[in-house]
Amino acid sequence: MIKKILLPDLGEGIDGAEVSEVTVSIGDEVSVDDTLLVLESDKASMEIPAENSGVIKEVLVSPGDNVNKGTPLMVLEVASKGQLDVEQALQPEQPEQPEQPEQPEQPKVEQSSQLEQLPALKTSKNIFASPGVRRLARELGINLQMLSGSGPKGRITKDDLNRYIKIQMAIGSGVAPTMKKEIDFSKWGDVEVQKLTKINKITGERLQGAWQEIPHVTQYDTADITELELFRKKLKKAAEKDNVKITFLPFLLRAASIVLEEMPRFNSSLDHKNENLILKKYFHIGVAIDTPNGLIVPSMKDVNNKTIFNLSKELMDISQRAREKKLKPNELTGSTFTVSSLGGIGGTAFSPIVNPPEVAILGVSKSEWRPVYYKETRSFEPRYIMPFCVSYDHRVIDGASAAAFTTRLSKVLSDLESFKD
User: Fold this and answer.
1) Which domains does the chain have, with CATH numbers?
2) Helix, strand, or coil (residue 305)
3) This prediction's pTM
């Protein structure tokens, strides 16, 4: 039987991806779960495995191609029964609808001198764009003849479309995008040009968007984790026989899930119209992980139902695969709250940026021993103190609620009963 392999749904929030590597060729024999190709999205790289064993008959994509859900990737000859017949599997794609007639010319709008000049019109024969880009352009009423493609052979990409939209929005609002002046830094000394990874660029764009769109406020606090640190060291020693490393992060995840359950507004999202608040009954906490390719935030599912040992084991696995770019699409989506811990690196405080569509994020800095004065005994005692903060969306959470959240989290971290399974 002949089966056409289509790109599956990559997960919530991932509209498409770019083919970074094709690992098979025509004539290769593949088995179930063998990697067929590697995609790079705005969140991470991911491998697309084979769902059936067989022989590769056609390879329909190449490195650099942008693909979306349902895009044909390859044609596979499989031996199993019940697959699509040859005619159905190899039937040609439906021809794309012709471009809609161009609308009457709009009144000219005076552009700022800082605004990039739009390219001259191209003929339809010179337009190269994926079906997904063409479809989106039709839905938005954008004439692709107005765009210059930055992809291979002048292909118009989704980034080109988004850039054009931003320019038009700036023109409509009367605010032109700021164009940076190119600077030759080498005239003052030696320099090295290091290209940003795709994850670096997309993360930067999303963080900038989040900072501009969300009214951020950060609430700071501390927690006395003296007893908890002693308890962690006991668990760490016991877990060494199973080669499981017990860090402080699983305790933060557990504590956060407890407080989130008590204060559901922190475990919510605004709907697409910003008119309703969606309170989530599940607790999937994102964990910021620093990798050689940039910051990755995989989602730890159902944290409230897992033990410290299980959370530690899962963290070890997911952190390793994040650094090796082997995370699955569903592991990068669905988080309801995020924890960003710099405690293992240093620093006394920082203000993390909320990761939309979430409404709050926990930031943890390095713990240290401090003298704490006790009024009852009129004496100082050394205590292990952890500084932390919560940045939140002020449209959803007010200052009093944020202070209550950090106060409660501090108490949970000081109570060992919260972590005894």
Assistant:
1) 2-89 (2.40.50.100), 124-173 (4.10.320.10), 199-419 (3.30.559.10)
2) helix
3) 0.63
pLDDT for residue 116: 41
pLDDT in tens, 333-370: 999 999 999 988 999 999 999 999 999 999 999 999 99
Query: Contact 66/130 with Cβ under 8 angstroms?
Result: yes
Check if 216 is active-site: no
Q: Any bridge partners for residue 309, and if so which?
A: none
Q: How far is CA 251 from CA 7, 174, 308, in A?
A: 38, 50, 7
- CB-count burial class (<10 Å; 0-12, 13-18, 19+) for 3: buried
Reported residue count of the chain is: 421
Closest CA to 284 of 15, 9, 13, 7: 13
What's the rounded Cα separation, in Å, for the pair 10 and 113? 41
Alpha-carbon span 286 to 284, nearest angstrom: 7
Give burial (CB, 10 Å; 0-12/13-18/19+) of 381: exposed
332 C-beta neighbours (distance < 10 Å), count: 23
Question: Using CA atoms, how far apart are residues 18 and 42, in angstroms rounded to an integer?
Answer: 9
Helical residues (DSSP H) of 263-413, grouped into ranges: 308-323, 399-413
In whole angstroms, what is the distance from residue 332 CA to residue 286 CA?
8
pLDDT number for residue 44:
64
Average pLDDT for runs of 10 along the chain of length 421: 85 74 87 83 74 90 88 84 43 48 46 41 56 77 79 77 76 56 90 86 84 94 96 93 94 97 97 93 96 90 96 96 89 95 92 96 97 94 97 97 98 91 67
Nearest 5°: phi and psi at 403?
A: -65, -40
In this structure, the dihedral spanned by the alpha carbons of residues 297, 215, 350 and 293, taken in order and rounded to 10 degrees, is 30
Among positive and negative, which fits the CA dihedral 78, 83, 88, 91? negative
Q: Which of 216, 272, 284, 394 is catalytic?
A: 394
Count the Cβ atoms, other than its own, within 10 Å of residue 333. Answer: 18
